Amino acid sequence: MRHGTLRSPDYRGVPVIPPDHPRYRSLVTRERLAEYARSGVVAMEGLTSHGRGEAFDYLIGEQTTATARLAEQTAAAMLMSARHPVISVNGNTAALAAPEIAALQKACGALVEVNLFHRTGQRVLQIEEILRNAGADVYSGEAERLLPLTHDRAWCRREGMYSADVILVPLEDGDRCEALIGMGKKVIAVDLNPLSRTAKTATLTVVDEVTRALPEIAKACLELSPADRNRLLASLDNHYLLSEAIREITLRLSHALD
Ligand code: ATP
Ligand code: MG
Q1: pLDDT digit string (tens) for 163-175?
Q2: Does 106 map to a domain?
Q3: Beta-strand (E) ranges in the chain?
Q4: Cβ < 6 Å from ligand 1: which residues?
Q5: In a domain, 95, yes or no
Q6: Coil, strand or helix: which one is 159?
Q7: The domain containing residue 147 runs over which residues?
């Protein structure tokens, strides 16, 4: 193995990425996702979701913006004040951020549960294993068709996300976000696209890349005082956060060629 890149058993000759390449991190991440797609952990469709995310990450400057940081602190306040917080994990999130999920779980005590659009028993087991290997305590067991959806994201555990009051959904699809809100849950989305249905439907949207967002949320879980949490919860305004994210993008675009 050269330069620390991942190589799967069915590696088909992807060029090795030189570490001095200006987009090294992005290229290594793409290769990692492609390898997870070959092993079935990431759905092929998940690769296009990643591409959409990358495009929006360019627009926010591939950094955590001031608004995203405020959203991350508010997400921590929501998780720490929840009765039954759950972190929902799909293939892309497991492939990109399994250690970050484990660290956030340790910081806030949330239950970690796998939920997939392209669900097979095999994929659920593979993703649970990745999470466990990264140190997460994964909630598994008998799933039932409990969410009001006609596709496979309806499957979840009764004592898991079905009973959650606050649910963190990185890289979510708009349909399920809407269904969870319709069930009376508070939904925290992590989505680089401030215009997505998910971003607009969630209780709180963190417009940041998932591997940057999760450590910030975990850090805030450990640092916020009860008074800080109450202040953040009282001032939660997702419309404001999204309009600020769009304003930050517009400002960057208007100076893009300076
Ligand atoms: P919606 O259904 O909410 O309108 P969509 O159909 O555009 O969204 P999905 O494929 O359902 O998108 O969900 C994936 C979302 O996750 C996209 O909006 C994409 O911007 C975002 N995304 C992809 N990769 C990342 C990442 N690494 N970090 C944060 N967000 C990401
Ligand atoms: Mg969608």
Answers
A1: 999 999 999 899 9
A2: yes
A3: 85-89, 111-114, 144-145, 155-156, 166-170, 186-190, 204-206
A4: 49-50, 52-53, 56, 96, 171, 173-174, 190-193, 196-198, 209-210
A5: yes
A6: coil
A7: 66-252
Dist. CA 12–CA 15, nearest whole Å: 9
pLDDT recorded at residue 51: 97
Q: Is residue 240 part of a domain?
A: yes
Indicate whether 12 pLDDT > 80.
no
Residue 159 falls inside a structural domain: yes
The answer to whether 180 and 160 are in contact (CB under 8 A) is no
Could you read off the pLDDT of 55-88 as tens digits, one per residue? 999 999 999 999 999 999 999 999 999 999 999 9
Domain CATH for 241: 3.40.50.12640
Task: For ligand 2, an ion, list residues with CB under 5 A.
Answer: 173-174
The alpha carbon of 177 and the centre of ligand 2 are apart by a number of angstroms equal to 10
Q: Measured in angstroms, how far is the CA atom of residue 27 from the centroid of ligand 2?
A: 24
Q: Read off the pTM.
A: 0.93
For ligand 2, the distance from its centroid to the CA atom of residue 153, given in whole angstroms, is 12
